[in-house]
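_Full entry_
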Amino acid sequence: MVDDPNRSRPLVLVVEDDPDIAQLLKITLAKESLDVFWVDTGTDAFSAVQEKRPDVVLLDLMLPGQNGFQICTSIKESPATSHIPVLMISARNQEKDILEGYELGIDDYITKPFSPKVLVAKLRRILDRDKEDISRANQTIELGSLTLDPKSREARVDGEAMTLTKTEFDILFLLAVDRGKAFSRSEIVDAIRGKNFSVTERSIDFQIVGIRRKMGSAKALLETVRGIGYRLNPK
């Protein structure tokens, strides 16, 4: 969740131009002890994200001004807001629209008409995952000669700093948190989606090559699991 000491409850930014749907969302979310801030145009959406720093954005696709895809792009390309989860809502259920949303970094996609219970369940999953991510983000991890500090985003092998890109650190930290677990390429893509690089399964292979090259004596920790993907094995 967004770290705001003045906020007692999670804040959901609703971007929806239909006032009836917006009212339904406000009532539904209020019953779940969630605060709601509503804007009804794409033009106002990104300004609200920057000002309010919501815990999650509930984003309609078809909007006056900018559409949902354009707003999502602005959110994910800004370093100050790229971490904010986005749940997209749309009456459009074509596969190409759903896939485009995921490629832009949305966390989930729900089609209209929607079940309020399903919507709340999806929001809760996102918020609970975000809490877990924050807890993990405070943990320094030591695996043999490898040390990862998520606060400073420093990686060291035998005390010597590794020069990792942001994406390389994200991948290595993901594998380290669930050490021993074999991650498929698609799972890694989903976990680090929206980190300002072209996210494809093939690009993961190139990132892994770069990480191994920089790990020096610790490179044996990073294993390829045939037919699955990669894992960080503490030995």
Remarks:
- The first helix runs from residue 19 to 31.
- Confidence is low (pLDDT under 50) at residues 194-198.
- Residues 143 and 234 are 6 Å apart (CA to CA).
